């Protein structure tokens, strides 16, 4: 199920991102100061797809939230297109692990929430919402309610919602983390096709090594808490990426390398966990 | 196309009433299970027949028990005598029912409007919550019956006093459930809304309020039964009008059949109000998942 044969949506070009000396400390429930992120430096070019990998609790979701303007950094700066991020970036598309579809709206109306939230009329965008649904093979579901759909189908609707306003930036926080392996691979292929043509800059947080390599132009590996960048691997695989990419020897080499880097960090978390 | 239905079970302390709240997993491909089908299942023809049968059985047993057992009818009348009382006293019964109905309606409406207006600032400000909750709990701890005489001094011997008592009882569940519903929203949903450029106002109307509706309706159901109790308590204290007064006066006159008729009329009004809220809930929440699941 891919949308590659159909006409992809056209989108304005992506925006570059820059992170300098970014750190985040927050107070835990017990009042102790917890350092979540420390000294993060990252430059992401316009239209680049960057996967961010790291062990659970390494602050990668926090980093994404700071980039999207949904959280604030304690020190350092994050800027988008040369401007510092101080408020939620409204020209971004955001996806979380949970699809967060509103149960009382049809799929189409859920997608059009992008415009209702902005106080815009939805009628001019209805066709575009349908077009996107068709691209992910969901044209039949436009008038259906989310609870009638499977998890994978719901997440497809969430993808459409994140793309419908043609954002130059996409922030994806483990969007496929709760899906089964097969659905996940299908959605990876669909997302690859959609983002390749949209030109948006994508930041993709995951702990799936396979999908990080499959989707990313680069994979950034973060350490256990406090999260730091420990490796930045350029992924040189043919584009556009289809399912056959997974069978290439380079693909396996990349995943093996990342797995090694991560294993070390996961071990660090385990030691930390045993101590506390 | 496969997929695991990922679900987050939000805690509903004042849960959506009913056993189905315990966690019925609704699978995909079960469209509209809540709406029409549930309605038909609940008040379907056969269910109604069984209800009627059960009631008739009880009435028959009651009648026989009194006739055979020889209980004096000034203590416990037979169903036939109660039926006769409905006929004989239909005028005062209708008159007082109408009065009580008005009180419940007014009391419930005021409690809902005021309760929601109070709940919104509580839900949105930690400071307001900290100040308001102790006050609400304190006022709630005072038995309303004890306040009756004070309300009479303030508002006189009319409908107003009964309505005020009904409001004072019914407002609490409205405040608590509305505040709870408005605050028990998935924080990621708020973040998503903000990333879409949603203002606080638009987030409230488009996301927060609809999300809170199941909890609000649970509160309304409790509130409507409380409004009935409040109105009757008011009538007991104030006197003069309403089914509460009629019951009291029938008791004074040893007219037990009228007393029974009056209580039954009251019960019917209570059921009517509850059923109305229940129906409204089914219509409004026809697309909401039953147990507060949010995928």
TrEMBL record, chain A:
Keywords: ATP-binding, Nucleotide-binding, Transport. One of its GO terms (molecular function) is ATP binding. Residues 17-249 form the ABC transporter domain. InterPro entries: AAA+_ATPase, ABC_transporter-like_ATP-bd, ABC_transporter-like_CS, ABC_transporter_ATP-bind, P-loop_NTPase. This is NitT/TauT family transport system ATP-binding protein. It comes from Actinacidiphila paucisporea. The lineage of its organism: Bacteria, Bacillati, Actinomycetota, Actinomycetes, Kitasatosporales.
Automatic annotation (TrEMBL), chain B:
The keyword Membrane applies. One of its GO terms (biological process) is transmembrane transport. GO terms for cellular component: plasma membrane. Residues 97-281 form the ABC transmembrane type-1 domain. InterPro entries: MetI-like (IPR000515), MetI-like_sf (IPR035906). It is found in: Cell membrane. SUPFAM superfamilies: MetI-like (SSF161098). PROSITE patterns: ABC_TM1. CDD domains: TM_PBP2. It holds the Pfam family BPD_transp_1. Coiled coil: none annotated. The chain crosses the membrane at residues 48-69, 104-124, 131-157, 163-182, 226-246, 258-277. It is a multi-pass membrane protein. Keywords: Cell membrane, Membrane, Transmembrane, Transmembrane helix, Transport. Belongs to the binding-protein-dependent transport system permease family. PANTHER family: ABC TRANSPORTER PERMEASE PROTEIN HI_0355-RELATED, ALKANE SULFONATE ABC TRANSPORTER-RELATED, MEMBRANE SUBUNIT. This is NitT/TauT family transport system permease protein. It comes from Actinacidiphila paucisporea.
């Amino acid at each position: 199920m891919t949308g590659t044969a159909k006409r992809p949506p056209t989108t304005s070009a992506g925006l570059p991102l820059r992170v300098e000396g970014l750190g985040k400390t927050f107070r835990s429930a017990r009042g102790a100061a917890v350092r979540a992120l420390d000294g993060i430096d990252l430059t992401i070019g316009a239209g680049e797809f960057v996967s961010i990998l790291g062990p659970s609790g390494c602050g990668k979701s926090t980093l994404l939230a700071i980039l999207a303007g949904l959280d604030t950094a304690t020190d350092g700066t994050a800027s988008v297109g040369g401007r510092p991020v101080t408020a939620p970036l409204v020209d971004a598309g955001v996806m979380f692990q949970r699809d967060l579809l509103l149960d009382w709206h049809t799929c189409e109306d859920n997608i059009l929430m992008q415009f209702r939230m902005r106080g815009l009329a939805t009628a001019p965008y209805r066709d575009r919402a349908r077009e996107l649904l068709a691209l992910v093979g969901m044209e039949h579901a436009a008038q259906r309610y989310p609870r009638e759909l499977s998890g994978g189908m719901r997440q497809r609707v969430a993808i459409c919602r994140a793309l419908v306003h043609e954002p130059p930036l996409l922030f994806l926080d483990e969007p496929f983390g709760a899906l089964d392996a097969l659905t996940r691979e299908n959605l990876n292929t669909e997302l690859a096709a959609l983002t390749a043509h949209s030109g948006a800059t994508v930041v993709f947080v995951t702990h799936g090594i396979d999908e990080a390599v499959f989707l990313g132009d680069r994979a950034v590996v973060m350490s256990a808490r406090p999260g730091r960048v420990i490796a930045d691997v350029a992924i040189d695989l043919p584009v556009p990426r289809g399912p056959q990419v997974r069978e290439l020897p380079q693909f396996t080499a990349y995943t093996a390398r990342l797995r090694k880097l991560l294993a070390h960090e996961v071990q660090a978390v385990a030691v930390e966990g045993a101590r506390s | 196309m496969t997929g695991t239905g990922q679900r987050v079970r939000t805690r509903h302390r004042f849960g959506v009433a009913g056993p189905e709240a315990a966690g019925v997993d609704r699978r995909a491909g079960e469209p509209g299970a809540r709406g029409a089908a549930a309605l038909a299942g609940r008040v379907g023809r056969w269910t109604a027949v069984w209800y009627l049968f059960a009631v008739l059985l009880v009435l028959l047993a009651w009648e026989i028990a009194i006739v055979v057992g020889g209980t004096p009818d000034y203590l416990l009348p037979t169903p036939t005598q109660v039926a006769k009382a409905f006929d004989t006293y239909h005028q005062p019964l209708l008159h007082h029912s109408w009065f009580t109905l008005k009180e419940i309606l007014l009391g419930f409406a005021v409690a809902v409007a005021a309760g929601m207006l109070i709940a919104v600032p509580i839900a949105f400000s930690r400071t307001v919550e900290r100040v308001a909750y102790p006050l609400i709990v304190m006022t709630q701890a005072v038995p309303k019956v004890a306040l009756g005489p004070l309300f009479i001094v303030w508002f006189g011997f009319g409908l107003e006093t009964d309505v005020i008592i009904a409001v004072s009882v019914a407002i609490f569940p409205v405040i608590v459930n509305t505040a709870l519903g408005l605050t028990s929203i998935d924080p990621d949903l708020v973040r998503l809304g903000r990333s879409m450029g949603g203002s606080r106002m638009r987030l409230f109307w488009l996301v927060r309020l609809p999300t809170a509706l199941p909890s609000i309706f649970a509160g309304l159901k409790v509130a409507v039964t409380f409004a009935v109790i409040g109105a009757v308590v008011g009538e007991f204290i104030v006197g003069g009008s309403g089914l509460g007064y009629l019951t009291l006066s029938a008791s004074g006159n040893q007219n037990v059949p009228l007393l029974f008729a009056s209580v039954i009329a009251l019960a019917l009004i209570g059921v009517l109000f509850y059923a109305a809220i229940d129906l409204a809930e089914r219509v409004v929440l026809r697309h909401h998942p039953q147990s507060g699941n949010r995928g």
